[in-house]
Amino acid sequence: MSGSPVPSRPKPFIEFEKVTVTFGRGAKQVQALSETSLEIAEGDFVALVGPSGCGKSTLLKLVGDLIKPSSGYVYVAGREIGAQPVRIGMAYQNPTLLPWLNIRDNVMMPLKIVPPFRGEFRAKRKTEFRERAEALLAQVGLSGFGDKFPWQLSGGMMQRANLCRALIHEPELLLLDEPFGALDQFTREELWQIMQELWMTKKTTVLLVTHDLREAAFLGNRICVMSARPGRILDDSEVAFARPRTIDMTYQPDFVALNQQLRSLIVSARGGTGIVQAGSH
């Protein structure tokens, strides 16, 4: 008697297959990433943590096709990176808003340059696209600030606008490289909650690089801990806390225990004596 058929496993949205990265040549050669394999499902939210220089941002750049692997393969949406366009949104620690454009026009910039939206930009920039930008700004608490310029906003407000710009073109993949690292604790926590709400609404696949262990545990569905250079993944664990998560939860014993576990892994990865902040950058 035959058993029940085994359900097919969905193909990962992002896949690193035995990827290495080496910079420079000869005596100046530096291996940034040792052989790394990792799978990320569509709609997942994965946080990368580890000591400085461990290759977290290198993984982000590989997915964004900003650098090429020295060996191995990177697949996005089932194809080798670069083989087929994938809409990607990016947000970094520095919001990099264009100072001569108002906030609304900054947010709409990807619609002007990313297909298929760029072909419709002239016709829709004052109607549908403007409405889309205003709706996103309202979702992050910036309703009424579309006509302001970056220099008129605080750092936290600029980072909110930066998130809107990263999401305006409905990306399939969102790459976040320490986007909240330069902000004060209260602003950072407020933006964690906004980022969580945006992800729960849109279910974009997200890859987050952070040094903040509370941030990783608050936002991530999974946390990957990386070793010191040459980087490799030491631990890949799911975060079991239900959503929506609250800031109060981050002070509960089980949440603190997860932070301490992550901290211990990173201290070991650094060689045992480094100072690692469990709750701040």
UniProtKB/TrEMBL annotation:
Ranges of residues in domain ABC transporter: 14-253
Entry GO MF terms: ATP binding; ATP hydrolysis activity
One protein family per Pfam: ABC_tran
Superkingdom assignment: Bacteria
SUPFAM superfamilies xref list: P-loop containing nucleoside triphosphate hydrolases (SSF52540)
Keywords: ATP-binding, Nucleotide-binding, Transport
Presence of the UniProt keyword Cell cycle in the record: no
Similarity annotation: Belongs to the ABC transporter superfamily.
PANTHER family noted in UniProt: ALIPHATIC SULFONATES IMPORT ATP-BINDING PROTEIN SSUB, TAURINE IMPORT ATP-BINDING PROTEIN-RELATED
Protein name: ABC transporter ATP-binding protein
Organism: Phreatobacter aquaticus
